[in-house]
Amino acid sequence: MKHVSILVPKNNAILSNVVGPFKVFSAANEFLKQTGRRPTDFFDIHLVGLQKSTVLYDGFFSIHCDATIDKIKKTDLILIPAVKPDKILESLDENNGFIPWIRKQRNQNDAEVGSMCMGAFILAKTGLVDGKQCATHWAGMELFKQLYPQVNLTSNKIVTDENGIYTSGGAYSFLNLMMHLVEKYCGREVAIYLSKLFEIEIDRKDQNQFAIFQGQKNHEDKAIKEAQVFIEDNVAEKISVEKLAEKYAISRRNFVRRFKKATQNTPLEYIQRVKIEAAKKSLESTQRNVNEIMYQVGYADQKAFRTIFKKYVGLSPIAYKGKYNKSITRPLDF
């Protein structure tokens, strides 16, 4: 049997990231049993914590672990749930006891390790994703880049898989990681069955369409912060990096360096992302056509606009509007 350790971080764990994997692997076991698979194909599922129980969501819920890390000498798969996004740094300190145990299981016992959503912060602290691809929730990406610049953070992928280290994107995209793992361990037939049972869209690859660009202003560079506000207030204008640098009396090279350091984006990337975020909002809420919205956010070249939009969103402008504009009437398919 494959020994699975679903970790239970202290105090700030996201409950769905604990219950969800438990239910998926339990359902996989049921299907394997019904189809006459060998006992060695089954999952031996455990909830593992630093302590036997933890209280979540201001006492509304509690989780009782069946083991603590000191009792688990060997495991095959470690799953790290998300922690609350407003408690990241606090959670890293509170759950530091997991770090040497995860490293030991990986390095000595060749355990595979997966993180869900903001659980990537705990995984990254182990050093196991240094130089590797890693996904997390879009809302935590700027802080993640600051804390772990040595990790190859990917903004678009729902699931990453690199030599037995797995990560997933934000929130309920952890279910796609579960489908990926079930298919890897049990085969496509089992994954398809579970995707139908739980109504999970299998093989979903990209999370960019869900991201909301908010801009990183948690820094002390006053000139760069003013430049960010200027970009956001003049979304319809064609803004060049040279003019911005000149406006704030900074050399172009130094301006680009300071902007990237402060925001984790180059000035051009920031301009593009602000414009695309404004376009997304218009596509969601107005009846303007794509060309009108393109001009509204300062683009005149249709091909360039479509290319940049798809780069950051993962969908074409027309596809995005069709998916998210609720006022579009869709014919019934009988």
Please tag this protein with its features.
334 residues; alpha/beta; Rossmann fold; Arc Repressor Mutant, subunit A; 2 domains; two-stranded antiparallel sheet; globular
Give a quick precis of the structure.
With 334 residues, the chain is an alpha/beta fold. The protein contains 14 helices and 11 strands.
Explain what you see.
With 334 residues, the protein is an alpha/beta fold. It folds into two domains: 2-210, Rossmann fold; 222-324, Arc Repressor Mutant, subunit A (Orthogonal Bundle), CATH 1.10.10.60. It is 46% helix and 13% strand. The chain contains 14 helices and eleven strands. The strands form three sheets. Strands 5-2-1-6-7-11-10 form a seven-stranded mixed β-sheet, sandwiched between helices. A two-stranded antiparallel ribbon has the order 3-4. Strands 8-9 form a two-stranded parallel sheet.
Helical fraction equals 40-55%
Largest sheet, in brief, is: 7 strands, mixed
Q: Tell me the number of helical segments per DSSP (H or I, 4 or more residues long).
A: 14
Please report the total strand number as a whole number.
11
In the sheet with the most strands, the strands line up as 5-2-1-6-7-11-10
> In the CATH scheme, what's the topology name of the largest domain?
Rossmann fold
